[in-house]
Fold this sequence. Notes:
mainly alpha, Clc chloride channel, 2 domains, two-stranded parallel ribbon, two-stranded antiparallel sheet, 4 strands, 64% helix, 2% strand
Amino acid sequence: xxxxxxxxxxxxxxxxxxxLIILPVASVIGALNAFFLWLxxxxxxxxxxxxxxxxxxxxAGLFIVYLYNEFGKNSAGGNNLIIDEIxxxxxxxxxxxxPLVLITTVITHLxxxxxxxxxxxxxxxxxxxxxxxxxxxxxxxxxRILLISSVAAGFGSIFGTPLTGxxxxxEVLAIGRIKYDAILPAIFAAIIADTVATALGAxxxxxxxxxLETFHILDHVVKIDPFLLLKVILAGIGFGLAGYLFSELTYxxxxxxxxxxxxxxxxxxxxxxxxxxxxxxxGNYDYIGLGVYASREGGVSIVSAFHxxxxxxxxxxxxxGLTALxxxxxxxxxxxxxxxxxxxTLGNTLAWVFGAPPELFAALGLxxxxxxxxNTPLACTIMGVELFGSxxxxxxxxxxxxxxxFSGHTGIYASQRIAVSKLFDYKGEAxxxxxxxxxxxxxxxxxxxxxxxxxx
Length: 456
């Protein structure tokens, strides 16, 4: 066997080649996401100024369904299509996926749907990279690496968290397993895309945790407060269950509307009406749109959740329900920013319950509910550091992995594979190896059982 250092020249050429490939692809993705964030900001400002636009949401939904039916081809597969293509290039990713999801996401936000943005950014990246893979005439294995890198570029540039984007792109593919063959291209793609997006004026929200607490044992300061750690573990269980509830409710509502209304035009129109009615019943507009900043004085938002009294005890439930409804009926956008809202507001509530610092628990909830719903605890731990600093890294890790285990084998990406089971098997049964969507059919939740009864 040759000395491993003899391979270094090949490694250098490999790295240099991928930088040359990644540079134009990630730059385009970063520029497109900067443009997307600007459009999203304008749409949000317009809707907040003209609240009557909410009443047009059902008609906007009809237009979205029409666009996908007439021009979408397989683009409706969204992030799940990209994950499937990473595993096996089969159906392909149409170039139209990028502009189509960009336009329809902006429409969703303009007229008051409750949705996010990361799904759009990832799909823009996937369509862009697939287009470039044809230009560069890449092999299937190299196309796979470029697709993974595009996910990293899209995610990293939309949130300003490049390292999180790179790890997320690898970790999201399979529960319990990470393959690092694409790590360097993914890191470079995320850095380049984030740099380009920032240079073009993309704005990212900055958070700060001002909790100065120390714990002494035998007159020495230790890194962990055991009482606070216990509270973090209990909160992590709650965050995991919230992630489970969001994933299952979204898929169950989608199944419910397929069984009852059946027609996609009727589904999106009725869904739009339900969003309007629920918003009016709530009495404010805090729970539609992104929810990063409050649309009114004293309103609830992700930012407000970092302050004492910045959320109501039910805020996370309202956002969870409206987002699940919006996405299940056919409106477009991502899930992650609403998950941030759900986690931050739930964290604010749990901080009051446990007598803990609200800004710390809002931060923990923000990353932990995301970890639970996407099965990416490592990426979310790193996100905690990129968003809030490294001082609370141990708490970030504990809460993310606790939430991950307590969310079960569910998630917002049906095409995500189960590589290593989260659960200990005491019955000697063979572990399930397949997609999350297939497991939902094999081991249905209470929601799914209810849908099956309706079918009969």
